[in-house]
Amino acid sequence: MLALRPNCECCDRDLPPDSAEARICSFECTFCADCADGVFDGVCPNCGGNFAKRPIRPASKLQKYPPSAQRVVKAHPGCSPRVVDRVAAAVRA
Fold first, then answer.
1. pLDDT value for 79
2. d(Cα 46, Cα 39) in Å, to the nearest integer?
3. Is residue 10 part of a domain?
């Protein structure tokens, strides 16, 4: 079962279980869409695999199968809590 990590590992943006912005690799490294596409060009910096949109767990299942509360943030090149602002502006431009 997916852990549904609560944040982007790059910019620390919150990614709640119903977020359409969450991206994961096959090892479930979790990033927001802006960082996955804008910072990493669709390639996971941890394993080299691609990203896919993270499935949304139905709200009716969250109590029995809660999302992870463990936040993971890594110092990948190009990452910081403010990177999301720069990347989002560039991706939308």
1. 84
2. 13
3. no
Torsion of Cα atoms, 47 then 38 then 83 then 18, to 10°: -80
Residue 12 maps to a domain: no
**What domain count does the chain have?**
1
Other CB atoms within 10 A of residue 39 CB? 23
Calpha distance 51→90 (Å, rounded): 19
The per-residue pLDDT for 75 is: 87
Angstrom distance (rounded) from CA 19 to CA 47: 23
What is the pTM (predicted TM-score) of this model? 0.83
Is residue 54 assigned to a domain?
A: yes
- pLDDT tens digits, residue range 1-22? 999 999 999 999 999 999 999 9
For 73, other C-beta atoms within 10 Å of its C-beta total: 14
Which residue range is the domain that position 80 belongs to?
22-92
